[in-house]
Amino acid sequence: MQKASNISRNITVIFMAVMLFSSFTEEQFPPRLQKKIDSAILSTYAIDSYTLMPITVSEEMNKITKAELGGDNLFKVLQGDVFIGYIYVGESPSMKKVFDYIILFTPELTIKKSKVLIYREEYGLQIGSQRWLKQFIGLSILDTVIYEETIDGIAGATISASSMTRATDHVLKTLRTLKSEKLL
Predict the structure, then answer these.
(1) Number of alpha helices (DSSP H) and beta strands (DSSP E) in the chain
(2) What is the pLDDT of residues 26-77, one digit of tens each?
C-alpha cells in the first residue's frame, strides 16, 4: 500500500514540475506566430533580445474591458531590466476566417506600430500593408478610432479593415481602463 502511495506521490511531483517548467517557456504562441511576433518586436524596438512579462487581470476586469485579456494578449516588453513598451497580440475576424495582429506601444501607451501577423484569406490582404497601418502610429489611449472617419478605408478589404480598426479601438479603450484602474 505504501509503495503505491509513493508512486502516486512521485507521479504528482513529476506532473507539477512539468507544468511549472512549461509555464516558463519563452514561446507562448504557436511557432509560426511566435516567429512573426519576435520579428515585429525586435525590428520595432530596434533590439537584439527581449523578455515578455504577461499582464494578467481579474476575470471581472476582463469582462468589463473591450479587448480580450486572457493572459496571452497583453505583455510588458523588457530589454534586460529596462521596460521598453507594451504589446497586445490579438485575433480579429476577416470575411470568413480570422487574422492575427500585434499592436506595439511605447511606455507612454502610444502606438509605435501595428502589424497583421497572419492573414488567412485570399481577399483583403491590403490591411497588412504598412502604408495603411501607419495611420495607427501615434494614436494614444485617449484617442477614439473609427473606420472611414479617423482611419481611411480600403477598397476590397472593407470587412478586414473595419475589423482591424475596431480591434485597435477596443485595445486603446482597454488600456485606458487599465491605466485608470492603476493596473498599468
Answers:
(1) 5, 5
(2) 557 999 999 999 999 999 999 999 999 999 999 999 999 999 998 799 999 9
- Contact call for residues 53 and 75 (beta carbons, < 8 A): yes
User: Does 100 reside within a domain?
Assistant: yes
Domain-located, residue 120: yes
CA distances to 1, 96, 173 from 30, in Å: 43, 21, 27
Residues linked to residue 91 through DSSP beta bridges, in sequence order = 100
* Counted domains in the chain: 1
**Closest by Cα among 88, 97, 151 to 124:** 97
Cell of 23: 509555464
Set of cell numbers at residue 156: 476590397
Range of the domain at 105: 31-180
What span, in angstroms and rounded, lies between the C-alpha atoms of 75 and 42? 15
